[in-house]
Amino acid sequence: MPLLEATNICMQFGGLRAVDNFNLEINEHELVGLIGPNGAGKTTVFNMLTGVYIPTEGDIKIDGSSVVGKKPYEIVRAGAARTFQNIRLFKDLTVLDNIKIAFHNELHYSTLEGLLRLPRYWADEKHATEACLAFLDIFDMADYADNLARNLPYGKQRKLEIARALATKPKILMLDEPAAGMNPQETKELMDTIQLIRKKFDIAILLIEHDMNLVMGICERIVVLDYGRIIAKGTPEETKNNPDVIRVYLGE
Amino acid sequence: MNRKMLKNYIINLIVVALIYAGIKVLISAGVINRYYEGIIIFIMINIILATSLNLATGFLGQLTLGHAGFMAAGAYVSAITAIALKNSGMPNLLILIISLIAAAIVSALVGIAIGIPALRLRGDYLAIITLGFGEMIRVIINNLRGLTGGAQGLTGIPRIATFDNVFWVTALVILVLYRLTHSRQGRAIVSIREDEIAAEAVGVKTTYFKVLGFAIAAGFAGVGGGLYAHYLAFLDPKIFGFMRSVEILVIVVLGGMGSLTGSIFAAIILTILPEALRSFSDYRMLLYSFALVLMMIFRPIGMFGTKEFSWQGIYDRYKMLRDAVKRREKA
User: Fold this and answer.
1) In angstroms, what separates the C-alpha of B226 from chain A's closest C-alpha?
2) Domains in chain A, start-ordered, CATH in brackets?
3) Cα torsion at B143, B145, B150, B153 (round to 10°)?
4) Which tops the pLDDT comparison, B109 or B8?
5) CB of B306 less than 8 A from some CB of A
6) CA end-to-end span of chain A, whole Å?
7) Pairing state of beta strands A229-234 and A221-226?
8) For the residues B37-45, what does the mean pLDDT come to?
9) How many beta-carbon contacts under 8 Å exist across A and B?
10) Which residues make Cβ contacts (< 8 Å) with residue B180, sequence separation at least 6?
11) For B78-87, what is each residue's pLDDT tens digit?
12) Measured between beta carbons, which residues in chain A are less than 8 angstroms from residue B1?
């Protein structure tokens, strides 16, 4: 059974069919790239998969159960976490608190237990701090734990956003143009981070990206979108040589 | 609990006890007369109102202009409850506690009822709709003549709010708000202020926490209103108008959105200031607004920003300064 399965999903904005009959299957531990020219509908697909938009037709299943019509936070609980094209961090909070918020659902004390500072509050908070610090350590960011997120350099902010998404313990991680606005050095670091995630966490990744080096370098499968339709699917080699893809995207 | 936190708790407890004892001594020595005592009580009521609004506006990030409405709901519920219990032979303190709890519950329920539809909106739209709801509460009270006395006002409220019980209620409200904002629920609330979309994308039930924050803020506004009713022993719907909401909001903005201690200091300043300026009553509002304009130009984040005042923080700063001076002397 695929981890994520989108069957014939469509998105109709008034008279515009932004996404038409999109099909996608992602299996466990797979890294799939979604590419396409500007306005092809990549982000719309993403927003449907993460619950921001409700597809006008079709079905999305995560781990076998349908998530159509669920709220974004419910989809996170179902096991799909995401990052945003323009980084969305909790900027005025510390790096540690950013992770702790994503860790929210791992803590179980009630409002009243928190107010009375009962033992479960202390136990849970201690566990959260330790777990989040250990988590930051995986990404080499434990030194930044007390910094405000807004003070991090761009590459680190992106890394924190990815780490925060992973802190929700997803089965599938969706990255929306993670290399946007990065220089080659930062892109290289990002590739390392993604490899690290694949090694340390047992999850699948869906990647939207424009940076061809990144996509061709790390993806196992690529889906190419144009005008809301899938025009090619396959391994990086196959897509690279597909005449349709060359025509609309790579240039002749 | 680690040692540093324990130390902070003990220091704060001692400071609160000292303030209480200090004021008590001054009252019994006659240095603080009834007029000053009244101002102190109003300061504390304003602290309750401002810190609770800060939860909704500073921590949750939802600009609301209807806080006076919740205060009014609490004031009337509390007053009516106390009038009903007046001749039951219960001790005053018990009557006060029961009526304040009733006020908190009803105000929080009103907060939930208003919050669920209103919190779908953001920013200016939310401000306008809460303004509208706040006025609605006032108008409803004005028209429920049989229950509230309508525009003629409600009289016969037992005058059971004294310096002692107002002080401890205020301390309790601050403690609850502080603990709430420093818990997992508080983090979820703050994450909504920082970025609602991102909060939802990491699994925070945003609607739930928005309504929770709003309801708690409304509940404490009700407590503030209740104390107000029991101190003045007279209620008139007019005092809970839009300007009252603005006054509370001004305290929050001046103190710093997201700083409870900021709201406390600002409440003290902004309650004393108009009283001190009484002799220039015509220019009072002018000066008040001018102070705010200056504040917005030179320090738009408020006195404290989102930081909290702490004795430990002062000590750390002092130590840093001392070390810097030492280093310079050596060099």
Assistant:
1) 22
2) 4-88+168-250 (3.40.50.300)
3) -160
4) B109
5) yes
6) 38
7) antiparallel
8) 95
9) 89
10) A111, A114, A115, B55, B186, B216
11) 999 999 998 8
12) 117, 122
A203 SS3 class: coil
| Residue A83: strand, helix, or coil | coil
Asked if B179 lies within 8 A of A114 by C-beta distance, the reply is yes
Task: Give the whole-angstrom CA distance, residue B130 versus residue B159.
Answer: 31
Q: Which of B58, B117, B22 is nearest to B264 (CA)?
A: B58
Measured in degrees and rounded to the nearest 5, phi and psi for residue A224 equal: -110, 130
Residue of A nearest to B1 (CA): A122
Q: Does B190 touch chain A (CB under 8 A)?
A: yes
In the structure encoding, which two tokens stand for residue B53, read together?
Answer: 């609004």
What are the pLDDT digits (tens) for B115-128?
999 998 888 899 99
Instruction: Please answer yes or no on whether B190 and A168 come within 8 Å at the CB atom.
Output: no
Contact call for B183 and A121, based on CB within 8 A: yes
Helix (H, G, I), strand (E, B) or coil at B65: coil
Q: What integer pLDDT is reported at residue A41 of this predicted model?
A: 87
The answer, yes or no, to whether residue B261 has pLDDT greater than 90, is yes
Residues of A with CB under 8 A from a CB of B: 50, 71-73, 76-77, 81-82, 84, 88-93, 97, 100-102, 104-105, 107, 109, 111, 114-115, 117, 121-122, 124-125, 128, 164-165, 167-168
What ipTM did this prediction achieve? Answer: 0.89
DSSP string over A89-150: --TTSBHHHHHHHHTGGG----HHHHHTT-HHHHHHHHHHHHHHHHHHHHTT-GGGTTSBGG
Q: Does B62 touch chain A (CB under 8 A)?
A: no
Name B46's Cβ contacts closer than 8 Å, sequence gap at least 6.
B224, B248, B251, B267, B270, B271
A209 has a pLDDT exceeding 90: no
pTM: 0.90
Please give the Cα distance from A210 to B187 (Å, whole number).
35
Distance CA A25, CA B172 (A): 55
Of B191, B202, B257, which to mutate for an interface test with A (greatest number of A Cβ within 10 Å)? B202
**Chain A residues with CB inside 8 Å of B212's CB?**
111
B204 and chain A in contact, CB less than 8 A: yes
Q: How far is CA B314 from CA B102, B192, B255, B258, B308, in A?
A: 39, 30, 18, 19, 11
Residue B211 has pLDDT above 80, yes or no: yes
